Amino acid sequence: FMTIHAGINRRCAEILMSEKRQMNIVSRGGALLFAWMSLTGNENPYFEHYDELLDILRSYDVTISLGDALRPGAISDST
Fold first, then answer.
1. What ranges do the domains of the chain cover?
2. Contact (CB, 8 A) for 69 and 7
3. What is the DSSP letter of 45?
4. pLDDT tens, residue by residue, 10-67
Protein backbone atom coordinates (compact mmCIF):
# COMPACT_ATOMS: atom_id res chain seq x y z
CA PHE A 1 0.00 0.00 0.00
CA MET A 2 1.33 3.45 -0.84
CA THR A 3 0.00 6.99 -1.06
CA ILE A 4 0.77 8.94 -4.24
CA HIS A 5 0.44 12.73 -4.36
CA ALA A 6 -0.02 13.01 -8.13
CA GLY A 7 -2.58 15.82 -8.04
CA ILE A 8 -0.28 18.69 -7.13
CA ASN A 9 1.50 20.15 -10.13
CA ARG A 10 3.27 23.39 -11.02
CA ARG A 11 0.02 25.07 -12.07
CA CYS A 12 -1.60 24.23 -8.71
CA ALA A 13 1.52 25.44 -6.90
CA GLU A 14 1.37 28.78 -8.73
CA ILE A 15 -2.29 29.22 -7.77
CA LEU A 16 -1.50 28.29 -4.16
CA MET A 17 1.23 30.94 -4.01
CA SER A 18 -1.09 33.64 -5.37
CA GLU A 19 -3.92 32.96 -2.90
CA LYS A 20 -4.05 33.58 0.81
CA ARG A 21 -4.84 30.49 2.86
CA GLN A 22 -5.21 30.41 6.61
CA MET A 23 -3.19 27.20 6.70
CA ASN A 24 -0.60 26.36 4.09
CA ILE A 25 -0.19 22.79 2.79
CA VAL A 26 -1.25 20.44 5.60
CA SER A 27 -0.40 17.20 3.79
CA ARG A 28 3.13 16.03 4.68
CA GLY A 29 3.64 14.31 1.32
CA GLY A 30 2.14 17.25 -0.53
CA ALA A 31 4.38 19.69 1.35
CA LEU A 32 7.47 17.65 0.50
CA LEU A 33 6.57 17.56 -3.19
CA PHE A 34 5.75 21.27 -3.21
CA ALA A 35 9.13 22.07 -1.62
CA TRP A 36 10.95 19.83 -4.12
CA MET A 37 9.13 21.43 -7.08
CA SER A 38 9.89 24.90 -5.72
CA LEU A 39 13.59 24.13 -5.27
CA THR A 40 14.13 22.36 -8.59
CA GLY A 41 11.60 24.09 -10.82
CA ASN A 42 10.56 20.65 -12.09
CA GLU A 43 7.08 19.21 -12.50
CA ASN A 44 5.81 16.65 -10.00
CA PRO A 45 7.16 13.34 -11.38
CA TYR A 46 4.10 11.47 -10.10
CA PHE A 47 1.90 13.81 -12.15
CA GLU A 48 4.20 13.89 -15.18
CA HIS A 49 4.65 10.10 -15.39
CA TYR A 50 1.32 9.03 -13.89
CA ASP A 51 0.42 6.43 -16.54
CA GLU A 52 3.88 4.83 -16.40
CA LEU A 53 3.74 4.78 -12.61
CA LEU A 54 0.36 3.03 -12.65
CA ASP A 55 1.69 0.40 -15.08
CA ILE A 56 4.64 -0.31 -12.77
CA LEU A 57 2.47 -0.47 -9.66
CA ARG A 58 -0.06 -2.70 -11.41
CA SER A 59 2.69 -5.15 -12.41
CA TYR A 60 3.63 -5.51 -8.72
CA ASP A 61 -0.01 -5.60 -7.55
CA VAL A 62 0.46 -2.48 -5.39
CA THR A 63 -2.60 -0.82 -3.89
CA ILE A 64 -2.45 2.97 -3.96
CA SER A 65 -4.22 5.84 -2.28
CA LEU A 66 -4.34 9.16 -4.11
CA GLY A 67 -3.28 11.75 -1.55
CA ASP A 68 -4.90 15.17 -1.57
CA ALA A 69 -1.89 17.47 -1.32
CA LEU A 70 -3.96 20.65 -1.17
CA ARG A 71 -6.78 19.58 1.11
CA PRO A 72 -8.01 22.41 3.32
CA GLY A 73 -6.57 22.57 6.81
CA ALA A 74 -9.22 25.04 7.96
CA ILE A 75 -12.87 25.59 7.11
CA SER A 76 -12.00 29.03 5.72
CA ASP A 77 -9.68 27.37 3.17
CA SER A 78 -12.38 25.09 1.76
CA THR A 79 -14.44 26.04 -1.27
1. 2-28+41-71
2. yes
3. H
4. 999 998 888 888 888 889 999 999 999 999 999 999 999 999 999 999 999 999 999 9
